[in-house]
Design a protein that fits this description.
Elements (H helix, E strand, L loop, with lengths): L3 E3 L38 E6 L17 E2 L2 E2 H10 L4 E8 L4 H10 L5 E5 L4 H13 L14 E4 L9 H14 L1 E7 L5 E3 L5 E4 L6 E10 H10 L2 H6 L3 H9 L4 E4 L10 H15 L2 E5 L4 H15 L4 E5 L9 H4 L2 E7 L3 H14 L9 E8 L13 H13 L3 E8 L2 H13 L1
Helix pairs in contact: 3-5, 5-7
């Protein structure tokens, strides 16, 4: 089996309705320095994402995991949800043999990290097993041997709204119990029918739960279960927790998951997923400071201010190197400028967005914020070079990018206090 490894440096709703995640990430892995309190693990955790489905139930020719949302395939959002979790070691994405090159292109284009693209099998269980085999192998290009993970999380590629808090619960329970899985209350009453098509009996709904993803296992348990399972299991089975129980005697810890674990299954789910992605991406932004102390201070103040509005800001000095991933995944940018070099700084953001060659089905927004010194005209006076920013905004709009400008005037007293504070620091 060939494994292709890309290592790039770089609310409560009704149960049957798609639920809105609290925050859906619009950034690349490891970009935020804000980790949930206490959410760290002292053991290795990797992920298997089976993504070999054909999407028959959506009625579309394109498998749903590769359907595009704002210029990105659905599977890219799911991968990103795991990449943002600092304690996830490797993500094995298992796709049908004919989609391996397509998946490799997705990984490169959107600069995904810690991803191995693995050819899948003819069934779901065979694909998951291939992913486990890949996690247990050493990549030829790796200089240092990467130990196989202690815990493996199995998740569906078409469930993009998984959150770190719940992943943490699954990982910890899997390490302690050997297996753990997400469950949700049943929405509909389950009935059994006779061969003639009549009602036989119904189940008491309160006694049953729907098995969901993610599921977690110690590597030894799930690997041993797959080694022991039958051809019938490989061909017709779908439930990993059952394999762990039947072949390893490991009784999984069941954890009720949030309503955001819903799966994109039918065509109507695609519209719901796109709506959620659009709304959540609108509540995040990348702030580019250029490394200026004053700009960083303003960015941190903005971050605190918008926190109460359930918005997230990532603060970076530039959009190069490891930060270039924002150009492909972000939709809102704030460029903070100090001094007279503001025009080329804003132009650089616009040029970078254009060169990223992203699919601009939805216009990204760039907000230019300039901090003026005490001896410059105030906002109520003459704004510095208004024609230049208007012309730049008009040009950007032709490229489907919206540019807005704000000038903030700070008094001499403020500047003096700021300099004094920096000296004290």
């Amino acid at each position: 089996m060939e494994v292709r490894h890309v290592n790039m440096q770089s609310d409560n709703r009704e149960p049957e309705r798609p639920a809105h995640p609290r925050i859906f990430p619009a950034r690349e892995a490891g970009k935020s320095d804000r980790q949930p309190a206490g959410r760290s693990v002292d053991f290795s955790v990797s992920v298997v994402l089976p993504a070999g489905g054909t999407g028959e139930r959506t009625g579309l020719q394109t498998p749903k995991q590769f359907c595009s949302f704002l210029g990105r395939p659905l599977i890219s959002y799911t991968i990103q949800a795991f990449e943002r979790v600092s304690w996830i070691q490797t993500i094995a994405v298992v796709v049908a043999e004919e989609n391996v090159d397509l998946m490799m292109d997705v990984v490169r284009r959107f600069q995904h990290r810690r991803v191995r693209v693995v050819p899948g099998g003819s069934t779901r269980h065979r694909s998951i097993y291939n992913g486990l085999l890949a996690l247990g192998e050493k990549e030829e290009e790796e200089e240092e041997e990467e130990e196989r993970p202690k815990v493996v999380i199995i998740h569906d590629a078409v469930r993009p709204f998984v959150e770190e808090d719940f992943l943490y619960q699954i990982a910890m329970a899997a390490k302690e119990q050997g297996a753990a899985g997400a469950i949700r209350p049943l929405v509909s009453t389950v009935i059994a029918t006779t061969s003639e098509g009549y009602l036989d009996h119904s189940l008491e709904r309160v006694k049953y739960r729907a098995s969901e993803m993610p599921q977690g296992f110690t590597f030894d348990v799930i690997y041993r279960a797959y080694q022991r399972c039958s051809e019938s299991d490989f061909e017709f089975g779908t439930e990993c927790l059952h394999l762990a129980l039947q072949y390893c005697g490991t009784n999984a810890k069941l954890i009720e998951g949030p309503p955001t674990l819903w799966k994109v299954t039918y065509k109507r789910d695609l519209a719901a997923a796109e709506s959620i992605i659009k709304e959540t991406l609108s509540r995040s932004a990348c702030v580019v400071t250029g490394g200026s102390t004053e700009a960083v201070s303003l960015a941190e103040a903005l971050r605190k201010a918008v926190g109460a509005l359930e918005m997230e800001l990532d603060v970076v000095p530039d959009l190069t190197g490891d930060n270039a991933g924002y150009l492909l995944t972000g939709w809102n940018f704030i460029r903070v400028s100090v001094g007279d070099s503001w025009l080329p700084e804003v132009e650089a953001v616009l040029v970078a967005l254009k060169e990223a060659n992203r699919a601009l089905l939805h216009p990204p927004v760039v907000v230019w914020v300039r901090l003026s010194s005490a001896d410059e005209p105030s906002v109520s006076g003459k704004v510095a070079e208004p024609a230049a920013i208007v012309d730049l905004a008009s040009t950007a709009k032709l490229g489907n990018i919206l540019l807005y400008g704000i000038q903030l005037h700070r008094s001499q007293t403020f500047w003096d206090l700021s300099r004094k504070k920096r000296r004290q620091d």
